[in-house]
Every structure is written in C-alpha cells, then in structure tokens.
Amino acid sequence: MPSVMINKLVIIGVGLIGGSFALALRKADKVKHIVGVGRSRENMQRALKRGAIDEIADDLPSALKHADVVLLATPVGQVGSIMAQISPYLEPDTIVTDAGSTKQDVVAAAHSHLAGHLKNFVPAHPVAGAELSGVSAADAGLYQSKNLVLTPLKETSAEAVKRVTELWQACGARVSEMNAAQHDAILAAVSHLPHVLAFLLMNHVSSSTEHDSNEPLRADDPLRFAGSGFRDFTRIAGSSPEMWRDICLANREALSWQIDAYQKELTALREMLARDDSEALERVFTSAREARRRWLENKS
Ligand SMILES: NC(=O)c1ccc[n+]([C@@H]2O[C@H](COP(=O)([O-])OP(=O)(O)OC[C@H]3O[C@@H](n4cnc5c(N)ncnc54)[C@H](O)[C@@H]3O)[C@@H](O)[C@H]2O)c1
Ligand SMILES: O=C(O)C(=O)C[C@]1(C(=O)O)C=C[C@@H](O)C=C1
C-alpha cells in the first residue's frame, strides 16, 4: 500500500466517526491535508486542537476544490441535503463516501442528488462506534479489527471501491461488501433493535420513579439498586438521540419487522411464566447462552 494515499480529504461532520477516521488515517500516514466542514464552531475548533483536521472550511466550493475524497459523517437525516449542496462543486475525480448506519436511504439520496457522480460514490458503514458523540470522543484505534461494510451501486466504479477499501483497511478495518437492503435488514437486528430496547428500558425503569432529574436518586429509587447487568444493557442508551432518530426513521421497515418478531418472543416468554413452565424457560435461556458463546468464539 502506498504511504500517502490522499492529498486532500474533506470530512463533513467531524464527530466521533469522522474524527476517528481522520485520526486513524493520520496515524497510518495516509493523508496529507484534512479539511473539516461542521455545524458547530466549537466542535470544529476542538477538531483542530485534537489534530483531526488541518483546516476549518470557510465555504463548500473552496473546501471541495482539488479534494481527493469526501467523507459524509453526519447523522443520516442530513445526508441528502448535504449531497445536494456539494454536488455542483464536486470535481469529476473526487471520490465521495459516507459512514451512515443505514444504507438504502443514503443510496436513494445519491440517486437523487449525485446522479452525475455515481461512479465515484461508495456507500460505506463502519460497524464500530460508541455511545459517545463529538470529536472529543474520536479515537485513532476505533476501527481496528472492526467490520466495514461497503454497499456499492451498480454504477460505482471498481477503482473507487478499491480506493475506499484501502483507506478503511489503513484504519485497521475488515472490509466486506453486500447490497444496501441486505445491510439494512442485518443491522436492524444486531444494532437498531438493541438500541431501541436499551432506550426504552431506560425510560421504562426511570419513568416509574418520578423524580426531578436534577435531584439525587431517592432512597427507594430502583435505579439506586441497578447493577452491572443493567449498566451493560443500557450503555447504548447514552447514544445520540438525533443520530438514532434518523437511523430508526431511515430503516423503519426492517426495524418494525424486528420489533414485531421480538414482541412475539416476549409474549411467548410471558406465557411460559403464566403456565409456570420451567423447562421451556430453561430451554430459551440455554439456547440464548449457546448462541452467544458460538458468536463470541467465531467472531474473532
Ligand atoms: N456513533 C456510532 O457508534 C456510529 C457507528 C457507525 C456509524 N455511525 C454513523 O456515523 C455518522 C456520524 O455519527 P457520529 O457518531 O460521528 O455522530 P457525532 O454526533 O459524533 O458527529 C456528527 C457530526 O456531524 C455534525 N453535523 C451534523 N449535521 C451537519 C451538517 N448538516 N453539516 C455539517 N456537519 C454536521 C455534528 O455537528 C457532529 O459534529 C452517523 O450517520 C451515524 O449513523 C455512527
Ligand atoms: O458500541 C456502540 O456503542 C455502538 O452503538 C456501535 C454501533 C453498534 O454496534 O450498534 C452503533 C451504530 C453503528 O452504526 C455501528 C455500531
């Protein structure tokens, strides 16, 4: 792999994901100059200070001039309007990629707004992250040994896919490809449903306690007695509400399917309790424990 792979990288949305991409490529010595485009001046100053970017963009036309690669790393609900804004200023050879957690919506937005640029558009999703947001949480090691899924369009050129693959590999990621619908169906099960469950469990337990959110927990508040199991299950309820609003709406069909299927599992378990069915309960828990053991052994 050549050492410097890109002269000018533009990151639109320099938060956890965009900032980590920048820091990882810098660490690997693969990029010369990084320009950040942001919404909050404060976060962009932080990105400069952390060394994630070299320059805060003054305007899109000058940011995009001579750009080799543009990464869209804002919440997915913003992606369509950003594509429409950048489209007039993209140079023919500039590769555009993204990091959105959903892919069918991003692909549809590209068809609407980047129609003349599809051969250089490479949709991507790093399956790595945290419940933290903003560039302060960015980490050069975030993508190490993590999955990165590409969902190229039929128009995307093999050369553009190769270049984006090399960039993510330089960040330490394991790159694979699938189509956008398959991606969204899989991620609904392993990422979107778990986040919804964590948010709802947190609300369910805390709303039953009815205290002022600024006051310390009351002596009889159930949350005072929540242990590490509750903490592990709800870690991801600390995630960005804006980001998860956009993900849930973008992938509503696959997510709704998962919610219905999960609801059936809950109903079945509720019936086992009602009929005092200890064998069925133990069977459910055993098969879950086995499935988790197999997953951890095989995921490497
Ligand atoms: N957090 C994760 O675990 C994770 C993992 C994989 C992919 N993703 C995806 O990556 C993307 C970014 O997520 P994140 O965790 O880095 O979020 P983040 O909140 O840390 O960063 C997003 C940044 O985008 C900026 N922004 C928002 N709208 C903008 C606009 N219109 N123009 C310019 N900047 C704008 C925000 O100010 C923020 O700095 C999302 O699409 C998300 O679905 C997140
Ligand atoms: O580790 C976390 O906190 C995450 O939520 C990361 C996580 C996930 O695994 O669900 C969240 C959303 C992304 O699109 C990819 C990764």
TrEMBL record:
Keyword Coiled coil: yes
Coiled-coil regions listed: 252-279
Prephenate/arogenate dehydrogenase domain span: 7-300
Keyword Membrane attributed: no
Keywords for this protein: Coiled coil, Oxidoreductase
PANTHER family from the UniProt entry: PREPHENATE DEHYDROGENASE, PREPHENATE DEHYDROGENASE [NADP(+)]
Protein name: Prephenate dehydrogenase
Lineage, opening ranks: Bacteria, Pseudomonadati, Pseudomonadota, Betaproteobacteria, Nitrosomonadales
